[in-house]
Amino acid sequence: MATEQRKLRRKWKGWHLAALLLMLVALAGLAAGCGGGGSGKGSTTQVADKLPEDFPAEPAWFKGMPKQYREAYIWAAYHHEELQYIPCYCGCGEMHGGNSACYYQRDAQGKVIAFDRHASA
Asked: What is the pLDDT, as a whole number, of residue 45?
């Protein structure tokens, strides 16, 4: 009976060791995947410091805004695709279809034609 118990304990320890190693490998993979550092599309690791070339001229009220507000507008200029799916929060009474419209007005082709003050409110 004692010999049987020893064999079971060895199997049990081996199983635990295998499960532990599997969990460590899974956690290492998860950590590598969440590490950021990539520069792919949609990456927010680098923030542009100026608006795209094809944007309209900056209005006077934009130039006088605090830095963090200007940075938000610049970020929004490069992330229209993501922002269009986030609900509007500017208090316009749901006039905007998505958060992107709180920053800029667009024409029928999607080109930015004017800045919108709603995101700064």
From this structure: 47
- Beta-bridge partner residues of 106: 112
DSSP the chain: -HHHHHHHHHHHHHHHHHHHHHHHHHHHHHHHHT-----STT--SS--SS--TTSPPPPHHHHTS-HHHHHHHHHHHH-HHHHTTSPP-SSSSS-SSSGGGGTEEE-TTS-EEEE-GGGG-
pLDDT tens digits for range 102-119: 888 889 998 999 998 888
User: How does pLDDT run across 63-85, given as a tens digit for each residue?
Assistant: 899 999 999 999 999 998 898 88
Give dist(CA 20, CA 105) in Å, integer. Answer: 54
Q: Using a cut of 0.90, tell me whether the model's pTM lies above it.
A: no
26 residue type, one letter = A
Domain count across the chain: 2
In a domain, 84, yes or no: yes
Which structural domain, as residue segments, surrounds residue 103? 60-120
